[in-house]
Amino acid sequence: MNKKTKTFNKNVCILYVLHVIYVLSVLGVLGVSCILTGCKKISFRSLLTESDEKEEPSLYLLKSELSFAVKEDYIAYVRGGAGYDLDNLCFLNQKSLDETVLKLPENRKFAEITSGEKYFYVFCEKDNGTSRNHYVRVYDKNKFLYEVSVPFSRVLAKNGYIFGYETEDGHEFSVGTDRSNSCIEAHYYIPEKDFSKEKAGNLSSWTKMEGADELMVGDTKMYRCKKDSFHGKEYYSDAKDTNRLYELNYLLVCDGVFSSGEEDEESNRWIREFHEAMGSKEENFEAFFGVKEDKYYGICNVYKKSVNRLRFQSKDIKYSFLFEVEEDSKHIKKISEHEKVELIYEDEDNLVYKNKEKVYYQNKRKNEGKLVYTYPGGMKITFLNGSFRFTEIEANLDREELSGKDQIIKLF
Predict the structure, then answer these.
(1) Would you say 389 and 408 are in contact if contact means Cβ atoms under 8 Å apart?
(2) What is the radius of gyration, based on Cα positions, of the chain?
(3) CB atoms within 10 A of CB 280
(4) Inter-residue contact 53 to 21 (CB < 8 Å)
(5) DSSP strand E in 128-212: where?
(6) For the whole model, what pTM was predicted?
(7) Cα separation of 1 and 78, whole Å?
(8) How confident is the model at residue 350 (pLDDT cuts 50, 70, 90)?
(9) Quick one: pLDDT at residue 176?
(10) 370 and 360 in contact (C-beta within 8 Å)?
(11) Is 404:82 a contact under the CB 8 Å cutoff?
(12) How far is CA 250 from the centre of its chain?
């Protein structure tokens, strides 16, 4: 995949569920963002201390890898530090900070986790060598309830319904994809209240989505999406333009050279669009895209120079801006601009951003800010519904070494 997308509306809070993950290498820094209302310049220098002004290295992009889920006071996840630990599920009580670790059966491989109105649903695989069987394991907070075999290669929950993507050869969902914690992709649904060990494994208990370009499943609007290299058939998603996320989710330009894939007319067209939005032919910038409902959006970080045409240093940041890709023309429309900071997330009420090795949260309504995380090396960051996952990492141009610390913090 090469891209990411954006979603925002003036009155819609943006969830950067494309789950945006970034690796800030060695003396790392990060930047990604979601949405602002009104095109205006904002400075966050007032929240930065004098010690923040020290020089520190770069921003590195990594695909969203390991999903996690939040339900009431509990966070459910598998560890991402020091390599994947896909054998053990962790359930953290955010109030007491007590953690329960439950081991998966030996022949089950974790793929994704989601939370419904009642339970956590853990999607697992069993690889038989020539085929894969798929299972959903159901947990009531930190207590295992039951497991059921399902005819799907992806299962997610939203607004009181469970959604299933019909299994098809060559189109498996697996750990390491940047679709984790992202939009729903499905062919079938079942009310969560009817999901049970007796019914969930029987396809006749599910309702198939077909025919309409748009349909409502409870309170969730689902859009019909065309097949592509990642989907062998048409499917439905809660993001209208999911296909565009697979076409473009990341753009990197270093010293005027397209550096995130093979240069062609399409990549040059996107560069021209960004130059037009910037008002100048900037030679060093990174753009991250996302999809939410009916919007295609993103953030662009602009730098003074690059390091070895591979990455940027935070000290060289010039400005960042939020943008929307207009549906018909595919033009880049700048929404807001920020000076000398790299953004992680923003909506009308909340702002999370990184400066040097420090991550800050700001409540925009109250104009209150605080430091929420510090690490002098690199880190990966994933976002989900107000919770942020920090995985510390040491990296250079040749390799990545995970330190093992993996922490999820709910900020709003």
Answers:
(1) yes
(2) 21
(3) 8
(4) no
(5) 132-140, 143-150, 152-158, 161-166, 185-186, 188-191, 207-208
(6) 0.72
(7) 24
(8) confident
(9) 47
(10) yes
(11) yes
(12) 12
- How far apart are the C-alpha atoms of 348 and 212, rounded to whole Å? 33
CA dist 46 and 43 (Å) reads: 8
DSSP sequence for 199-262 = TTT-GGGSEEP-S-SEEEETTEEEEEE--BTTBSS-EEESSTTHHHHHH-BEEEEETTEE-SS-
Top pLDDT among 399 and 245 is at 245
Q: Which amino acid is at 240?
A: K
Q: Look at phi and psi of residue 50 and say left if phi exceeds 0, alpha if psi is from -120 to 50, else beta.
A: alpha
Q: What digits encode the pLDDT tens for the residues 49-81?
A: 443 333 343 444 434 556 788 898 898 988 754
Report percent pLDDT > 70 for the chain.
71
Helix (H) or strand (E) holding 268: helix 265-278
Task: Please tell me the distance from the alpha carbon of residue 182 to that of residue 5, in angstroms, as a whole number.
Answer: 11
Q: pLDDT, tens digit, for every residue of 227-238? A: 877 788 899 998
- Contact call for residues 62 and 402 (beta carbons, < 8 A): no
Scan for tokens 């296909």, then name that residue. Answer: 243
Half-sphere exposure (Cβ direction) of 405: Cα atoms closer than 13 Å = 11
The answer to whether 387 and 412 have CB atoms below 8 angstroms apart is no
Q: What DSSP line would sit under 355-377, residue for residue?
A: ETTEEEEEETTTTEEEEEEE-SS
Q: Write the CB contacts of 96 (distance below 8 Å, at least 6 apart in sequence).
A: none
> Hey, which of 2-6, 29-33, 243-247, 342-346 has the most confident mean pLDDT?
342-346
Tokens of 143: 């207590």
For residue 340, what pLDDT band results from cuts at 50, 70 and 90? confident
Q: Pseudo-torsion of CA 401, 33, 269, 240, nearest 10°?
A: 110
